[in-house]
Write a structure and sequence with these properties.
This protein is an alpha/beta fold. It has seven helices and seven strands; from the N terminus they run E-H-E-H-E-H-E-H-E-H-E-H-H-E. Bound molecules: NADPH dihydro-nicotinamide-adenine-dinucleotide phosphate. The site of NADPH dihydro-nicotinamide-adenine-dinucleotide phosphate (NDP) has 28 residues, from helix 1.
């Protein structure tokens, strides 16, 4: 399937040192892409690079706190120095944000989740877009949203808000960049067991399983194929869209 071949392409995956980001990176490497991952934790970066190198591709990791625009700028510069181009960008890094009722949420916590789940995507996309347009190169921008951007996730309004906001960004950029042959899409996972979700209360996990048509959680290997599809020319006529991978959670009658 030549359409899925990513040979000659360079992909950037933020939060690529673990969880869903590492699953994306694994799929991309298997499809032949060179991959740069960004994350804060140097040890996790090192381990992820080792596992990706074992698959036999050119990969590199950069330490970056995505909430700091200066670090995003310098990591992008370092990535360009290493690979010379970025054709595909997965804006995936993110976190859960404040839990509890909105009126009890501090400004600091609220701004923190906006910075991590929304502003970091903008900081990263701006660098990638400018470089794609300058190179007159086709491109793929993919953000990890969540089904929390569709359903009302009470007591996690910051998370729900930011995951919905990136869907608006996806649609706006799809229009803005279509004539530049840059496609912009979003992936909305349901519950996948990762460092982020592992401490979810058992009652919430049970509710998720009740709504899952298959009666199971999603697994990381199930994230690889969709990443390759959205990164490759197989998805060239698809833009501004949201792909939901949730085992049917959002269509379940309850
Ligand atoms: P993980 O906690 O396993 O991964 C989060 C990643 O983001 C890590 O690589 C982490 O690296 C990185 N990261 C976090 N904060 C920063 C920061 N400030 N700067 C740079 N990197 C950062 O969680 P998931 O894999 O589950 O989450 C990935 C994405 O998927 C998130 O956007 C999440 O909202 C989304 N998602 C997850 C779901 C799930 O069920 N797991 C469901 C729906 C969406 P490091 O620790 O080195 O900083």
């Amino acid at each position: 399937m030549e359409q899925f071949n990513l040979k000659g392409k360079v992909a950037l995956v933020t939060g690529g040192n673990g969880g869903i980001g590492l699953a994306y990176a694994t799929g991309l490497v298997k499809a032949g892409a060179k991959v740069a991952i960004w994350g804060r934790n140097m040890e996790k970066n090192k381990d992820a690079i080792q596992s990706l190198k074992d698959l036999g591709s050119e990969v590199a990791a950069f330490v970056c706190d995505l909430t700091d625009i200066n670090q995003v700028d310098s990591s992008f510069e370092a990535t360009m120095k290493e690979f010379g181009q970025v054709d595909i960008c997965f804006a995936n890094a993110g976190g859960g944000g404040p839990k509890g009722m909105l009126h009890k949420t501090s400004d600091e916590d609220w701004n923190g989740i906006l910075n991590l789940n929304l502003n970091s995507v903008v900081y990263t996309y701006r660098k990638v877009i400018a470089q794609l347009i300058e190179r007159k190169a086709p491109g793929k921008l993919i953000v990890t949203s969540s089904i929390a951007g569709l359903i009302g996730m009470g007591y996690a309004s910051g998370y729900s808000t930011t995951k919905a906001a990136v869907l608006g960004l996806t649609r706006a950029l799809a229009v803005e960049l279509g004539r530049n042959n840059i496609q912009v899409n979003a992936i909305l996972p349901g519950y996948i067991e990762t460092e982020l979700s592992i401490n979810t209360p058992p009652s919430f996990k049970e509710a998720v399983l009740r709504r899952s048509c298959s009666g199971t959680f999603g697994t990381l290997d199930q994230m690889e194929g969709v990443a390759v599809f959205l990164a490759s020319s197989a998805s060239d006529f698809m833009t501004g869209q949201s792909i939901i991978l949730d085992g049917g959670h959002t269509i379940h009658p309850g």
